[in-house]
Amino acid sequence: MESQPQVVVVDYRKGNLKSVERGLAAAGAAVEVTSDAEAIARAGAVVLPGVGAFADAAATMAELGQVDAVRAAVDAGAPFLGICLGMHLMFEAGEEHAPAGGPLPRGLGLIPGTVGALARTDEEGRPYKVPHVGWNSVHAYGAPSPLLADVPDGEYFYFTHSFAAPDGPATIARAVHARPFPCAVQVPGRPVFGVQFHPEKSSDAGARLLRSFVRLATRAR
After folding, report:
1. DSSP letters along 149-209, please?
2. What is the percent of the chain where pLDDT is above 70?
3. Beta partners for 48?
4. Which residues are annotated as active site (predicted)?
5. Which domain holds residue 86?
6. 56 domain residue, yes or no
7. CB 3.0 to 4.6 Å from 66: which of 26, 61, 191, 199, for a disulfide?
8. Residue 1: which pLDDT band, with cuts at 50, 70 and 90?
9. Active site residues per annotation
C-alpha cells in the first residue's frame, strides 16, 4: 500500500491550524504542524493557512525565517496551498495594516501584485457588507486546474475576509461580493495554489478540494 504523503502546515501564529490539520489528515495526508524553517524548507508539500492581517503575518514569517523556507520548498517543486490569509501572502505585497506613509508589507512574491481591500459597493453604487462572511459560489476561470478537478462550477465554499487578491494570469476561480474577485489562484504551470475561502470549513466541497491537493502531493514525491 502506498504511504501517505507528508504535508507540512506552517505555524506562523496566525493560522487556523487544528481544523486544517484535521482536514488534511482526513484527505489522506500525514501532517506535520511546525514553525521550524528547516522543516518547512525540506517539506514535500506545504500548506499555509491563516486568519489575521497581512502585515502582522508577513512580519512574523520573516522573523521566523519562514519566508525563505517556503520559497525554498516551492522552488524545489513542493506542492503548495495557501488558505485565506495564506493566499494573500503568496503575493508581492498587501495593504492590510500597512503603516501610514511607509512601504507596503512584503509577501512571499510567488505571484505578482498587491492584495487590496474588498469593494464596498457594486458597479451601481449599492453597498455591500465588509467583511464578507458566509457561503458563496465559486466559478472556475481561465485554464482548468487540477486543484478544482472535483469541484463543480458554482459550488459553495465558506468565506471570511475583508481583502482580496488582484486579478491576473494566476486566477483560476472567481466569486462575487459587490464585484468579482479572485477566490482561487495557481502559479501557471506549477502545483502552487491559493484559495480565498476556507476548505477546512466548507463541508464536502472543501473535503474534495483537500483530497485533490493531497493527490497532487502524492504524485510529486
Report:
1. TTS-TTEEEEEEESEEPPPSTTEEEEEEESEEEEEEEE-TTSSEEEESS-GGGSHHHHHHH
2. 98
3. 82
4. 84, 198, 200
5. 6-220
6. yes
7. 61
8. very low
9. 84, 198, 200
pLDDT at position 98, please? 85
Q: And the C-alpha cell for 57? A: 503575518
* Whole-prediction pTM: 0.95
Structural domain includes residue 1: no
Residue 23 lies in a domain: yes
User: What confidence tier does 56 reach under pLDDT thresholds 50, 70, 90?
Assistant: very high
pLDDT at 15: 65
Do residues 141 and 191 make contact, with C-beta atoms less than 8 angstroms apart? no
DSSP state of 144: -
The domain that contains 144 carries what CATH number?
A: 3.40.50.880
Number of domains in the chain: 1
Residue identified by cell 491559493 is 194
β-strand partners of 138: 155
Here the cell at position 31 is 501532517
**Do residues 110 and 74 make contact, with C-beta atoms less than 8 angstroms apart?**
yes
The pLDDT mean for the chain works out to 94
Q: Is 65 exposed, middle or buried (0-12, 13-18, 19+ CB in 10 A)?
A: middle
**In the structure grid, which three cell numbers stand for residue 164, read together?**
482580496
Is 117 contained in some domain? yes
